[in-house]
Amino acid sequence: MKKNYLTIIYFLFFSIASFAQKNQIKAAETEFNSGKFQQAIGILNSAEYLIFNAEASDQSEFYNLKAKVLTGLVEKNIEPTKNVALTVTAYQELIAAEKASGKFKYSVTALESIKKIKEDLLNSAIADAKAKRFSEGASKMHTIYLTNKRDTINLYYAASYYRDAKDYNQALKLYEELDVLKYSGKGLDYYAVNKQTNEEELFSSGASRDLSVKAGTHIKPRMQKSPSKKVEIYTNMAYMYLEKGDLDKSEKFNSKILEIDPKNPDSYLNLAYLKIDEKKAIMDQMSNLGTSASDMKIYDELIIKKDNLIKKAISYLEKGNAEIPKDQDISKLLLNLYRALDMTAEYNALKARI
């Protein structure tokens, strides 16, 4: 008897929940049809927790309406980048629900809508970059990446646009994510000419390019091998960390460059200059000391620290000189540092070689 009672309670609970879901969908639809998109999305967001245990058909109706409401918000220019991403997520939830049920009512339209949204967002981001609106373009490229995290090239472009906008905090955050993902960019690049602008565009994948060609918006498809972007990424990171005053991380990424390209002269020079900059800070400390016994003790300690930094700079430059003996910039700076530490034998040997 107790078991039957629990079954009745369970059935009543889900009957009531189902009734509430349908009522909420109807209420949101009424607001949507009246053009009250923010009220509609408020209703749907408050009711979303009910939809997880709903029938697949109700889930499909819910997410289809949610996508339409979000599209309305985008068209009204209400947080467009954020709501574009949420629209794609709603369509993806819809497709998942219909796939689970095996009943496909809106999936084809949803897939076409996702494709159109991403194409429009990409074209808008490219236009922003050309107009030097790098922050706006970066935000849009990052949104495209969030809709499909397998297309890491979009994360790369988002980071690059933030770098161009001099938003180093955001750029570094995305570059660090690329590093964790072990992104290199090495592979194939897919291109096609946009019929409307007559300009060649880069696509995130061959499938995406082929769909655009098939749709008739693009012509002249081609592909080419793309080299690794690791050195470029680490160079940007080293520079931005230097600009932010984080010398340790700047040193870390210059060292990473040399692991990939041991004949990169700029990284040897940058590493040496980082140590020289540290030396300047110590020199400032020394110049502020007095003549007391305690200050003179600190002074002697700082002299050792300063000389160790110059020796570290020399070690970087000597490695660079061994790898690239004909690089004049490395040789000249190395000669200056040999002279600073009275390393006469090393100075003369290098001077004779160059």
TrEMBL record:
Residues 1-20 form the signal peptide. Keywords: Signal, TPR repeat. InterPro entries: TPR-like_helical_dom_sf, TPR_rpt. The keyword Transcription regulation does not apply. SUPFAM superfamilies: TPR-like (SSF48452). TPR repeats lie at residues 231-264. This is Uncharacterized protein.
